[in-house]
Structure formats: structure tokens, C-alpha cells
Amino acid sequence: QVQLVESGGGLVQAGGSLRLSCAASASTFGRLTMAWFRQAPGKEREFVAAISWTSGSTYYPDSVKGRFTIARDNGKNTVYLQMNSLKPEDTAAYYCAARGGTIAASQTSLYDYWGQGTQVTVSS
Questions:
Q1: Which is it for strands 118-123 and 10-13: parallel, antiparallel or unpaired?
Q2: Which end of the chain has fewer beta carbons closer than 10 Å to its terminal beta carbon, N or C?
Q3: Measured between alpha carbons, how far is 47 from 14 in angstroms, rounded to an integer?
Q4: How many angstroms separate the CA atoms of 50 and 57, rounded?
Q5: C-alpha span between 17 and 13 (Å, rounded)
Q6: Can you tell me the distance from the alpha carbon of 14 to that of 108, in angstroms, rounded to the nearest whole number?
Q7: pLDDT tens for residues 6-38?
Q8: Sign of the CA dihedral 49, 56, 11, 118?
Q9: Residue 111 CB coordination number (10 Å)
Q10: How many CB atoms lie within 10 A of CB 124?
Q11: Which has the closest alpha carbon to 5: 35, 25, 32, 31?
Q12: Model confidence pLDDT, tens digit, residues 63-99
């Protein structure tokens, strides 16, 4: 069983930055593919970023590419999401997710473990 705890959300003005953290309980963290998703009220949960454990390769949708960066520290069992140039449309609850597979997938159904989420609100 893997427990994920997100932190770092908050209120920020448009153009600002936030860094989210996700601490994992698993001793096998180094072999987990990690990802971030977000969900705005009334919308489906959407993929934001992923990082594989095999190569450290990262993946982003076009909506955040160039603004968001995912990184992991295997020594601290933590994955980060650095969010820059934030826009009001980035407002959502952000969720950390983990899977044991090697593919850094964008589908929610392929992730086995989820955190409780942290709220990010971007004001205009």
C-alpha cells in the first residue's frame, strides 16, 4: 500500500508561481511512476504531468508545457510540481498519483494510488 500526501497549494495571483509536493510512504518509491492530475469543479480529472522511474522522462499536456515542471527526489520519497506563469484556468484541486508500471501514462485509470489533493486558486 502506498500513501500519498500533497502539500503546497494556496492562493496566488495570475503570473505567479507555486510548488506542490507529494510525499510517498512507499519504500519502493524509486520504482513508482509518479504523476499529477487536476480537477476543477464540474470538470473531469485531467492529466498535468508525469515522470517515469526508469528513465526520469517527463511528460506534459500542451496546456501546461513550458510552465509546469515535474521532478522527483528518490532520497526523500517526494515528487514536486513547479508551476510558473499561473493562469486563472489553472485553478483546481491537484492530485498526486502513483503506479507501479514503467509507462508514464496520462489516463487516470492506470494509476493505482492517489493522494487527497491540494487546492490551487489563481486569481485574475
A1: parallel
A2: N
A3: 21
A4: 8
A5: 8
A6: 27
A7: 999 999 999 999 999 999 997 888 889 999 999
A8: positive
A9: 23
A10: 9
A11: 25
A12: 999 999 999 999 999 999 999 999 999 999 999 999 9
C-alpha cell at 24: 510517498
DSSP string, 84-122: -S--GGG-EEEEEEEESSSS----GGG--EE---EEEEE
What single letter denotes the amino acid at residue 119? Q
The position carrying cell 532520497 is: 75
Buried b (16+ CB within 10 A) or exposed e, 81-98: bebeebeeebbbbbbbbb
Task: Name the residue type at position 16.
Answer: G
Per residue in 90-117, pLDDT (tens digit) is 999 999 999 998 888 999 999 999 999 9
Q: Which three cell numbers stand for residue 92?
A: 483546481
**Spatial CA neighbour of 97 closest among 82, 83, 110:** 110
CA dihedral 2, 76, 27, 56 (to 10 degrees): 80
| C-alpha cell of residue 81 | 510540481
